[in-house]
Predict the 3D structure of the following.
Amino acid sequence: MTVIRISGTDIRAAITSMYRRFHERIRKLIDTSRDGTRKRPRLNAEETAWAMIGLATVSNIIRELALARPRQREAMFAETAKYLVQGDSR
């Protein structure tokens, strides 16, 4: 049996890389979803992508702890994500 040893530094680097790639993908999707005819969004795509990742994380915690029913969680995520993607922080 071969034992593979992975350090905490390796794990951290892999997770950091994964989140950076995930963030870049979301940012690109946000950029392409915003049309140029509206006024400039108050939240840029960079900030919005990180906010979406945070929202998804909280949504998963809510699911794991059974703090809301699935439909409630989905509605919360969808409604909040809509405002984030539209770029209006009000």
Summary: The mean pLDDT is 88.
